[in-house]
Amino acid sequence: MNNVFPPPLKSRPKPYLWLVIPVVFFLGLGSGWLIWGQGAAVAAAPTPDLQVNVKPDVKRYAVQTDDDPSMGPENAPITIIEFSDYQCPFCAQWYAEVLTRLMTDYEGKIRFVYRDFPLYSIHPQAQSAAEAANCAGEQAAYWPFHNALFSGKYNLGSDAYTRYAEELGLNVAQFSQCVSERRYKDEVDDDFKYATSVGVNSTPIFFINGLAIVGAQPYEVFQQVIDKELAGEIPK
Questions:
Q1: CATH superfamily for domain 21-230
Q2: Which residues of the chain carry a pLDDT beneath 70?
Q3: Which sequence spans correspond to the domains of the chain?
């Protein structure tokens, strides 16, 4: 099984060109997909030292939130939709380094929506993890379970899900029944199909008010985009 956490950035080899598509709204996803689509679904690497330069022909994408888990006010001026995979090391990196900081620094200004995009071909436990998180959501524990999965404490797998549920104080029998009967299989599959229909084929991918960012970009990239969006500097 893949390690949940990636090696330090300095030890990671430089990604191939087709993985380095930092802020796709420069060109629009139409151009981005031409590069994205050169390979199978992958975990997208971050791009260091990226500066956000907004062009006047910026494109926004009408990506739906569906009824997926969210945190933050529904009427927040910024909506971030992430397509992610619980077995993706870059997704875990972004969770650990960026998400909490964003939600703290922009308290009340961000609605964050998590949508599942398990990379079936390379992450065999990603779907079961996503289904387990949704089962935890039945007991109002989606986000604690989401955090536990990305912590990597017990890795992934049925035993790990049970241990996370126990530590979170869930009704384990109810949770285990939900997991065993795969109650949320269709929900996860539908997220995957929807993401594929809009061109997503790597993780993590984010849409900030419809503006696309590919890969586990550092906090500063999100900060630049959010600040520009809040200031009205990005064309609608």
A1: Glutaredoxin (3.40.30.10)
A2: 1-57
A3: 21-230
